[in-house]
Amino acid sequence: MGVIMQQEVKIGTIHTRAYRKRHPERVKISRKKVYLKRKQKAFELLGGAFCADCGCDEIAFLEINHINGGGSKEHKKRKCCLADSILSGKRSTDGLNVLCRVCNAIDFLKRKKPDSFGYHIARWEKFTGKKAELLNG
């Protein structure tokens, strides 16, 4: 019976690989949807799917930010996506928040060069209708 199960698994794997090869666009869309759902759930555990600084709620722009830095070092040690680590309980939400890509970059610059306070400006006119806003001042 074990041999039959192994053959069925091999056949299933062969068919799956063939489907993925025939329909790469469908597979890409499906994987993207799954990734975005996991990302959304992780954001909810961090307080919501919106930027903690500017309030941007466009899911494609949002990222998980390490409040005190150290994200690169943690990423190198981790074997999976940060959102997956949070959802599985392997990583607590302490020291993390949600920022949009722009605010995350500004946060990084503020940590690297604190004397540049008030220098960095983000422009969200397309999304908010507002003129340039000083995010770190």
Going by helix content, strand content and strand pairing, the class is mainly alpha
Strand order, sheet with most strands = 1-2
Largest beta-sheet characterization? 2 strands, antiparallel
Low-confidence stretches: 130-137
Overall radius of gyration: 21 Å
Shape: elongated
The amount of beta strand, in percent, is 5-15%
Write down the overall mean pLDDT: 79
What's the SSE blueprint?
Blueprint lengths: L1 H21 L1 H22 L16 E5 L4 H7 L4 H7 L7 E5 H12 L12 H4 L9
Antiparallel strand pairs: 1-2
Helix pairs in contact: 2-4
Task: Tell me what you see in this structure.
By secondary structure, this protein is mostly helical. The protein has helices at 2-22, 24-45, 71-77, 82-88, 101-112, 125-128; strands at 62-66, 96-100. The chain has a two-stranded antiparallel ribbon with strand order 1-2. It is elongated, with a radius of gyration of 21 Å. Mean pLDDT is 79; it is low at 130-137.
At a glance:
With 137 residues, this protein is mainly alpha-helical. 53% of the residues lie in helices and 7% in strands.
Primary descriptors:
single chain, 137 residues, mainly alpha, two-stranded antiparallel ribbon, 6 helices, 53% helix, 7% strand, elongated
